[in-house]
Amino acid sequence: MNKIFLLAALLITTIQTDGQNVPKIEQSTADSLNFSGGKVVTAYVTSWSETIPDPMEMTHINYAFGHVSPSFDGVVIDNVNRLKQIVALKKQNPKLKVVLSVGGWRSGRFSEMASSSVTRKRFADSCCQIVKELGLDGIDIDWEYPTQSTAQISSSPDDTKNFTLLMHDLRSALGEQHILSCATIASAEYIDFKECIQYLDMVNVMSYDMGDPPYHHSALYPSEITDWMTTSQAVEAHLSSGVPREKLVMGIPLYGRGVTENDGSMTECWHSKSEVPYWADKDGQLVYGYENERSVGIKCQYVIDHDLKGCMYWEYGGKEQEPLRHRIRTLLLKKSDEGKLVQSPEIHQRY
């Protein structure tokens, strides 16, 4: 995942801090949530954070990251002891699924590994061995991106074809009982979904980082404050590319992009067309785009209305994110009518 954390000081819902140990889960909380048969809520949890996630806030954890080994035939894991801590959370929530995400921004060696049937099979076997040894539930491939060297990694015109072969080999090694997913660019480019979707359980759409000020990076719908792509356009691009709704997981960022401090001249705004909040300067121009409870709630309702598999978010942070995480959980995992969308109080609407 390519992330730039540019946080406005006053927007504490997007600031990350170290977390505390997760308290014992009350049975009443567990009983009110639907961890099977409902929507998927996937949280990307990083190797470099010290925050221990609340295992009742999601159905899946994707641990970031593992990487293709220097010899192109295996997997190396960042901070494996932390991964073991995350797997241990399944004792508190036995229905929680923990998946190793291999890749990330500037994580290379995919092209070389996938180009040979020998190294592909060895890599797939290594993934399977790690899943079994660590008690994981599957593998997520975050290759950014096949055929592209934007992230300063090697690439080849054959990467798209070889990505499909890699998915085939991973599915063969993991079997049907384990999860196989991938993370994809918002535009759905570089992967032949019509060929490889048969091997995948889920496609995690990175529908964020789609613009920098004066554009919002995670707007739901297109408008004058959006750039090359929006979340709704990302969903449609994937559906058109061959990803079925029941496998499509829509991305939501728990961070913002733009200015790092407020000098007192910025105004909090809501864009009614794009359905996102932002900060504007004295000239009315967007200088910081982010998410709040209202926009996250609207995105979750979009997932429900369009019958998508669920949502994922990057990344699980500290307590300041709790209102956003709880909004997602309430809307997508609650068994009762508690999850009905309730509009938060209106804030200043510039458009």
From TrEMBL:
Which segments constitute the GH18 domain?
39-335
Q: What is its EC number?
A: 3.2.1.14
Out of the domains of life, which is the source?
Answer: Bacteria
GO biological processes: carbohydrate metabolic process
Per the database entry, which stretches of residues form a coiled coil? none
Q: Which reaction does it catalyse?
A: Random endo-hydrolysis of N-acetyl-beta-D-glucosaminide (1->4)-beta-linkages in chitin and chitodextrins
GO terms, molecular function: chitin binding; endochitinase activity
Q: Which CDD domains match?
A: GH18_chitinase
Root EC class = hydrolase
* Secretion signal, residue range per the UniProt entry: none
Q: Which UniProt keywords apply?
A: Glycosidase, Hydrolase
InterPro entries per UniProt: Chitinase_II/V-like_cat, GH, Glyco_hydro18_cat, Glyco_hydro_18_chit_AS, Glycosyl_Hydrlase_18
Question: What PANTHER family does the record point to?
Answer: CHITINASE, CHITINASE 12-RELATED
Which family is it part of? Answer: Belongs to the glycosyl hydrolase 18 family.
Q: What is the name listed in the Swiss-Prot or TrEMBL entry for this protein? A: chitinase
Which organism does this record belong to?
A: Xylanibacter ruminicola
Its taxonomic placement starts with: Bacteria, Pseudomonadati, Bacteroidota, Bacteroidia, Bacteroidales
